[in-house]
Design goal:
There is one protein chain. By secondary structure, the protein is an alpha+beta fold. About 25% of the residues lie in helices and about 30% in strands. It has a domain of about 80 residues. It has a five-stranded antiparallel β-sheet. A hairpin with a 2-residue loop joins β1 and β2. The mean pLDDT is about 90. It holds the Pfam family Couple_hipA.
Length: about 110
């Protein structure tokens, strides 16, 4: 299992988890979900429910990944498998993103 904190404009909004079977869960933190003036992080992850599950990386997060030559360079330099989308997200979306959302790896042992 791998996890990442998802922030919106520097505030922690939720938790993104990849389970051991490869599926994903995104869950808004209670404080973010229950505060009406806090927006959804994406139109595809609205605050109509607190937790979302998928068999693949959510399109919102997938679209944050580098593509083409940039992806090749990052994967080579960081020794990340080209099909490890979550690993790529964890290594690139903590500080090199366009927009308000960032994804920060949680170190677990």
């Amino acid at each position: 299992m791998r996890q990442a904190r998802v922030t919106y404009k520097g505030e922690e909004a939720g938790l993104l988890t990849q389970l051991d079977n490869g599926s994903f869960i995104f869950r808004y933190y209670d404080t973010w979900f229950n505060t009406s003036d806090k927006p959804a992080i994406s139109l595809t992850l609205p605050k109509v429910k607190q937790e979302y599950r998928a068999n693949f990386l959510f399109p919102f997060f997938y679209n944050m990944l580098p593509e083409g030559t940039n992806k090749e360079v990052v994967c080579y330099a960081m020794r990340i498998d080209k099909t490890d989308y979550f690993g790529l997200l964890l290594n690139t979306a903590s500080n090199d993103t366009i927009g308000a959302v960032r994804v920060m790896k949680i170190n677990t042992k």
